[in-house]
Amino acid sequence: MFPMRHFDASEPSKGFRVLGGSGRSQAATMILDPGRPTGGPGNRHPDSDQWLYVISGRGRAVVEGETAPLEPGSLV
């Protein structure tokens, strides 16, 4: 069983900051400038799950060729 931990992600620093993780997962905060992607076609995680939760702003996510709109409260 994993110990419960609390991370304050309410004011993330600019860029990408890892909060914690395991061999299969990673929690991080990320701030993107308008028009900037998180990664290209090589940004794959075949042996792990990746979740994206939007706190503020708008954008879109492309997952396996499908585009999903992103807005505050979106979870992909």
Distance between the termini: 25 Å
Helix content: under 10%
Q: What would the average pLDDT be, to the nearest integer?
A: 79
β-strand percent reads 25-35%
Q: Which structural class is indicated by helix and strand composition? A: mainly beta
Biggest pleated sheet: 2 strands, antiparallel
Shape: globular
Please characterize this protein's 3D structure.
The chain has strands spanning 15-21, 26-31, 59-63, 66-70. The protein is globular. The two termini are 25 Å apart. Helix content is 0%, strand content 30%.
Summarize this, please?
The chain is mostly beta strands and 76 residues long. Helices cover 0% and strands 30% of the residues.
Helix and strand arrangement:
Elements lengths: L14 E7 L4 E6 L27 E5 L2 E5 L6
Antiparallel strand pairs: 1-2, 3-4
Overview features:
76 residues, mainly beta, two-stranded antiparallel ribbon, globular
